[in-house]
Amino acid sequence: MSFHRHLNMYDFEALIKAKQDGKEKQIKIVDLREPYERRKKGALTVPFALHLTSSDLVKMTRMTAKDFSKTYGVEKLKKGDVIMLICEGGDRVESAYGYLREKGFKHVFGVTAPIEQLTFLHQYRVRGDDDDDL
Known about the structure:
alpha/beta, Rhodanese-like_dom, Rhodanese-like domain containing protein, putative, thiosulfate-cyanide sulfurtransferase activity, Rhodanese-like_dom_sf
């Protein structure tokens, strides 16, 4: 499956900057990486992102909004939300994109660049105790 709607890394950077400035509040960024991927030394953190794995998205479509919020601590995504998907390499984005579109989410975009190529995120890199040169 190929993306019908995608966002390149420059547009994604502009989106992050707009969210930092208090704009684009209606856009939901979903980081599909597994928790261990987000925690590992040197990993990039995506500001403003909801941390939902691919399996969490499947659970989300089967849960009530109240149960989802209670379980995950975030508001359940709505079919009218504008959703930006990102992951380590892109495969999960493609899969989640297709799944969400199939479930009726109309405004889904995938970030086409692997997360490590998003150089503007390097300021958000996870640091370890011995990271003097990062």
